[in-house]
Structure formats: C-alpha cells, structure tokens
Write a structure and sequence with these properties.
- This protein folds into two domains: 164 residues, no CATH class; 155 residues, 2-Layer Sandwich (Alpha-Beta Plaits), CATH 3.30.70.
- Helices cover 47% and strands 13% of the residues.
- It has 16 helices and 14 strands.
- The protein is an alpha+beta fold.
Length: 415
C-alpha cells in the first residue's frame, strides 16, 4: 500500500542531495510546530525507536516517568520538525529566550519548555547533528535561534517525511500582528461565526486524507480582520522553483497537479477596481512595451508596486532586491500605458490577499462537497491529477463570481 510513498520519498531526497544550506532570511524561516508520526502510520515503530534512542543517549538527569515523557515529547517535536525543514529547505526557528516561554501565545499553547528545548539543542550541537545560528535580542523584534539538520541527522530522518503531521485541531483562524484588541477578537470568535464554520468544515474533511506536511489549513490575518485573510498551511512551504519538491508529492498516495490563477493579483486589481480584463498575457504585454523580455522580473516589480503603500517604500524594497530605479520606472510606465487604470503604490496587496483567500476557501468548500482534496498554494490549488478538469472549471467560475463577471485565466502545472 505504501510502496509508492516510500519510492516518492527516496526520489525527493535524491533531488535535495546536492543543495547547499538555505539562505538565512525571513522567507526561509519556519516556526517550531507540534509534529508527530501517529501510531497508525507504517513508520511509527521506526520513528518511536529513533526518538527513544535520542532520549536514552541525551538523558543525563534523574527523571521520573512524567518528566521523561515530557522529555520524549520535546525530542519527538524537534526531530520531526528537523526532518520537515530538511525538505522545505528552511531554517527551523526555536526560542532560547526563557522569557518567551511565559509570554508567547503559541509556545504556551504547545506546552513547550525552555529548559528541555535548550537541553536538546545543546545535545544536537555537541554531536554535530545541526547547523545553528544563534538569535539576538533586539528591542522590539528578538530574532529566534535558527537550526538546520546536518547530513548526519537528516539521513536517518528523511524516510519519515511523508508520515509526519501536525494534528488538525483549532484554532483555524490566526492573526500575526494584531492591532488593538484584534488578536483576542480573532482567537475568541464563537463556533457559529461563518468563517469558523467554513474553516472547521474544511479541516474536518482533510483529517481523513494524507499529503506531505499534513497540518491544519488556517485563515491568517495580518493586523485586523480587513487586512490579509490568506490561507496558510505548511504544504505551501515546500520548494518548487530551484528544485521541484512540492509538485512531486502525493495526495492520498496519488500524483498531483497544481491549478494556478494566472497573474492573479494584477487581474484582481483591474477586475475589482475597473471591471477590466487583463487579457491573455498581461506581463508579456507590459514587457513588449518596455522592451523587456523577462516575465519573472516584470511580475516581481508589478507585484511589489501593487503591494506597496507608497512609491518610496516600493522602490526601496525593489532596490534591496537588485533592481535599479530607472529599470523599475521603465516597467512602471509600461504597465500604466498598457493598463491605465492599474493601481500601483496604493497598498493593494492586502486586498488582493483577502480576495485570494476567500476565493480559494470557496473552491476548497466546493471540493469538500465533491469529496475532492484541494490544498491551497498561494494563488493555486493542488489536487490529484484526475481532478484537474474539475478544479479548472470551479476556479474560473468562482473567480468570475467574486469579480462581478470579469473573466480570468488558469494554468495547470504537472510534475
């Protein structure tokens, strides 16, 4: 039954073999999560024996049964997280600041201990099993310590990848940087709130299915209920550009495809603001006017310009990415020549995320009714390949309904 999963894991691990350490920047960081291999998994015995061996080798204190169980739980979380990030190509964030364990909502929710975490990290460093970058304390934004497994550890963990999961349980709504009382408001919404009902429906359905980085799908706001509203799940964090990991994973042991909204933020901008269709090839059209033949660069510049709240901030962000002012202006002018009603440097990004999240949530709910697993991937959904025609039709219809009849385009990405 699990031959395909085991073969797929080995194939993905081969793809990762030659990669260097991930860059140490925000986009390559991921938070520590309560990850497990459940007793029903064919890899449970291997995972349990591995965890027990680390507990036995690192336990230098006299611990009673309860304390030993807590030590084992922390080891389980640590090893499963390190396995997961080795495929995600991200640094694992852990807190080695004692105060954080009494102040941070998510650390308290997971019942994590500063002392046990520090002890485990020290053992992994001493035995050469992790790369470590120590966090520094800043006045308003303390940086957490970053970990990444060395080959010595990763080679004994990688076979567990498809069997690691986070229990699917509430809360399914989250807010990152809540303004005023928004954090407590979002986290205390009643069970009969429409978005709580919808996200519960999606997650209850997903419990019975399997996929890589299985975890809850959450609706995430940035600072208030009108700011952001994107769908988030760790599956999105699997790499799929330099090395094609995500597209080569499985849903319920079947190969997948990704059905992707084409030029989604630009199309949403034009459709919502001016009821205008962007045509078949909007970024290529801009490039032709600008005399630039690099779609990725054009898309990046327009995306940042749409998301930035003013020109100074937008140009500053693009400058740090290596774009000079004259080049950005050239793309900017060409975009407005092709689409005069396109709104740039007006903070459109948070509105686009909100529309994107609502549309994909609607698609996922329609999937629940058809017993079809849809996993959100930014502006796309991953489905089993047998359901790609259904996904295309539903995504086009849903987008058009939200945008008052304006049509969009989708494309299908295959392994």
């Amino acid at each position: 039954m699990h031959t395909k999963v085991n073969q797929s894991t080995a194939k993905l691990w081969d793809l990762l073999d030659s990669l260097k350490l991930p860059d140490d920047d925000y986009s390559n960081h991921t938070f520590f999560r309560p990850l497990v291999v459940h007793k029903s998994s064919p890899k449970y015995d291997y995972a349990n024996e591995l965890i027990e061996s680390f507990v036995a080798r690192s336990n230098t204190k006299q611990r009673g049964a309860k304390q030993l169980a807590e030590f084992k739980r922390h080891w389980q979380y640590m090893l499963m997280n390190l396995c997961s990030v080795s495929f995600q190509r991200r640094w694992l964030l852990v807190s080695l600041d004692k105060n954080e364990y009494s102040n941070d909502h998510w650390l308290k929710l997971q019942g994590l201990s500063y002392g046990l975490t520090k002890e485990i990290v020290s053992y992994l460093v001493t035995t050469g099993m992790i790369e470590l970058k120590l966090g520094k304390r800043y006045e308003n934004n303390p940086a957490r310590t970053r970990l990444f497994p060395t080959p010595k550890l990763a080679n004994v963990l990688y076979s567990l990848f498809f069997f690691i999961e986070e229990d699917i349980k509430p809360p399914y709504l989250r807010i990152n940087e809540g303004e005023g009382n928004w954090t407590s408001t979002i986290l205390s919404l009643p069970d009969d709130h429409p978005e709580v009902i919808e996200m519960t429906t999606i997650n209850e359905f997903l419990k019975g299915h399997s996929w890589a980085c299985k975890a809850p799908v959450r609706l995430v706001y940035k600072s208030n209920a009108f700011n952001g509203g994107r769908l988030s799940t760790p599956f999105q964090n699997l790499p799929d550009r330099n090395v094609r990991i995500r597209i080569n994973t499985l849903i319920d042991e079947q190969p997948i495809c990704e059905v992707d909204f084409n030029a989604n933020h630009l199309r949403l901008n034009l459709a919502f603001r001016s009821k205008e269709s962007a045509g078949d090839t909007p970024y290529e059209d801009i490039g032709e006017i600008a005399g630039v033949n690099n779609r990725d660069q054009i898309k990046r510049i327009i995306t940042v310009a749409m998301g930035a709240s003013d020109e100074a901030g937008g140009y500053g962000s693009l400058y740090t990415e290596g774009f000079n002012k004259a080049y950005v202006r050239r793309i900017h002018d060409a975009a407005l020549k092709r689409f005069p009603k396109l709104q740039l440097f007006k903070g459109w990004g948070v509105y686009a995320q909100n529309f994107e999240g609502q549309i994909l949530k609607d698609v996922m709910l329609q999937g629940v009714k058809k017993d079809i697993v849809c996993l959100p991937v930014h502006d796309a959904v991953a489905v089993q390949q047998q359901h790609q025609a259904w996904a295309k039709e539903v995504m086009l219809d849903t987008w058009q309904r939200y945008m008052d009849g304006v049509k969009t385009r989708v494309k299908v990405d295959m392994p």
